[in-house]
Amino acid sequence: MPRLTIDTKNTKSLYDPVEVEINGKVFKVISIDRNVLKKIEEFDAETVKGNLDAAYQRLELLIGKHPFINKLRIEELIEITEFVTMNIFRPAKKEKNSPGPGEEKLQP
Description:
Blueprint (H helix, E strand, L loop, with lengths): L18 E4 L2 E4 L5 H15 L3 H12 L10 H16 L19
Antiparallel strand pairs: 1-2
Helix pairs in contact: 1-2
């Protein structure tokens, strides 16, 4: 009988780690659980209403409060947000070590 087994004992985040480099320093996006996800959605709703400060607050929630965040241009803020969002919701597929069933091996 087919079975799907999922182990959530060690799950601390809803996604694999994501890092952002700003001014030569690497920042790791915090672990997101459902409570943090809800707060992000609240910031998104405020941003859509024209509250740009909510967009900055969202980034602070994701990587922590840092003085340089206030110096980011809107374009940079959008670029960072899109990068983080893409890597959380559409992560890159991991490469296979060997072909799967029905796949051909590449000839050198």
